[in-house]
């Protein structure tokens, strides 16, 4: 992992509202500091634009939470984003993705424990990450499980967490939980 290139900020770097937001987020997560936020919020305009978008994809989207976490875990695994994986392994458990399913997501395509729905989703994730597009065959498979808005959201979810993984890995954002 890259050492922190931009260290987490404090009240001065984050501004009062950003600092309070980060403190509240840390308390909710049960960690001393949410480093994703204390680094990101140093670019206030970008952070306050991104935060609602990320929240919608994570908690208010059209995809069921279990599907959202399967997608995020796969992106985190393919992109070697330890920060993303550390956060979303925990969230996935809360959203019904047990450890065996998580292991199958990480082992994909060599795993056979996944539902046909999740196999189609992981095929879509891998295609998007590899080719930046999706084949007609995979699109049709996914369309058998997802409606039009869910399909649009699926592609955006993969793109959002791909970009976030790149950002986390490049900036060397420190882990939140001691392992």
Automatic annotation (TrEMBL):
What InterPro entries does the entry give?
A: AhpD-like (IPR029032), CMD-like (IPR003779)
| A Pfam family | CMD
Taking every annotated instance into account, which residue ranges of this chain make up the domain Carboxymuconolactone decarboxylase-like?
46-122
What protein does this entry describe?
Carboxymuconolactone decarboxylase family protein
Q: Which organism is it from?
A: Candidatus Mycolicibacterium alkanivorans
